[in-house]
Specification:
The chain has about 350 residues and is mainly α. The protein is built from 19 helices and 4 strands. Strands 1-2-3-4 form a 4-stranded mixed beta sheet. A hairpin with a 7-residue loop joins strand 2 and strand 3. The longest helix has 21 residues. The chain is globular. The chain starts with 6 loop residues before the first helix and ends with a strand.
Length: about 350
């Protein structure tokens, strides 16, 4: 590949420069070329070039091959299966950590469930940085099973000796995935006593997303910690939505939108008002457009402020839409009747399917 000219040659030259200089600008230049190659011919150029590089005896060329395949798969769904197949074949024999890191990242971008066993195997690698990366990639490559091999691997990684590995595993299983079992909750509960503060917060947040009552005093305690980052903790408080958290929230930054959303979710009066207003939007829509099929839903792993309004009336032209209720009410100045009118106006102007906030 050293003698190859054209895009592949420029890409390898940029990769070697980035490796040797360790300068950010050279790293950015390399990735810009990778992304450019991934865009060409709907990813087919990157697929061909990357697959060819995987068979090279040169470590860097194999790494670049993984980068190309991963970015092509991320950009073009049509090449994902073939890219995943090539990367999984390389995984059977690859031993270089830097290549395995790019391989794991590439598999994540394919979103191919066939890669779960490969990532599970890499989760036992001796390199802690690679184990951390693998833990994060289970966000995109998952079995979808409550007790799948990916979940079991993440639970094991939550007991890893390296705090960064534990942190990524707790974040992925607690916040990114939506499986909920006793084993998962027990693992998250163990994280709440971890020596690493970030792991403790991820454990508490993961329990909060599953509405586990054990999370309430943990979240309150984290909110009251001086000097501690409250961003994720406020998210957890908003999801729990219980009045027991109001005293702790009173000490948080009052002008913060995150604090206000958490308080609104935990305050019974404000929460009830939000739910009543949302229902008023539905009933008003049915009055304005009978049979419009308006319905409310609240994702299990989100707060009341993530409530969604859906319209699914196939017999009415232009009545197919999704809205986040909170932004819709804000747009209407807090008036649910006006909010319903805005929805009807949107549907009238769009004349078809619409997704809006």
């Amino acid at each position: 590949m050293d003698n190859v000219v054209g895009p592949a040659g420029r890409l390898m030259a940029a990769a070697r420069l980035a490796r040797d200089s360790e300068a950010d600008r050279d790293e950015h230049a390399y990735w810009a070329l990778v992304l450019e190659a991934a865009q060409e011919e709907n990813g087919e150029t990157a697929l061909r070039c990357g697959s060819g590089l995987l068979g090279s005896a040169d470590v860097l060329e194999r790494k670049v091959g993984c980068d190309l395949l991963g970015n092509a798969a991320d950009t073009h769904e049509s090449v994902r299966s073939e890219a995943a197949t090539a990367l999984m074949a390389l995984a059977e024999a690859e031993t270089e950590t830097c290549v395995l890191s790019s391989l794991a990242c590439g598999l994540g971008r394919t979103r191919d469930r066939r890669a779960v066993p490969v990532l599970v195997g890499l989760s036992r690698h001796e390199d802690a940085d690679l184990r951390s990366l693998v833990a994060s990639e289970f966000t995109f490559v998952t079995s979808g099973l409550p007790d799948g091999p990916d979940v079991q691997a993440l639970i094991r990684l939550m007991r890893d000796q390296d705090p960064d590995v534990r942190n990524w595993a707790a974040f992925t299983l607690g916040f990114q995935l939506e499986q909920d079992t006793t084993a998962i909750r027990d693992a998250l509960w163990t994280c709440t006593t971890d020596e690493c503060g970030e792991v403790r917060e991820e454990g508490a947040r993961g329990l909060a997303r599953r509405h586990d009552p054990r999370a309430v005093p943990l979240i309150a305690g984290l909110l009251e910690c001086d000097g501690w980052s409250h961003s994720f903790t406020l998210d957890a408080a908003e999801i729990l939505g219980v009045p027991e958290l109001l005293p702790a929230l009173a000490g948080c930054e009052p002008d913060s939108p995150e604090t206000d959303r958490a308080v609104a979710a935990c305050d019974p009066v404000r929460r009830a008002r939000m739910e009543d207003d949302a229902w008023t939007v539905v009933t008003e829509l049915e009055r304005l457009r009978p049979g419009i099929g308006a319905a409310l839903s609240s994702p299990r792993y989100e707060s009341v402020h993530r409530m969604r309004l859906t319209l699914r009336a196939t017999h009415l032209e232009g009545a197919d839409a999704d809205y986040d209720v909170a932004p819709l009410l804000t747009r209407a100045g807090g008036d649910p009747v006006r909010a319903a009118g805005l929805v009807v106006a949107d549907l009238t102007s769009s004349g078809g399917e619409r997704t809006a906030n």
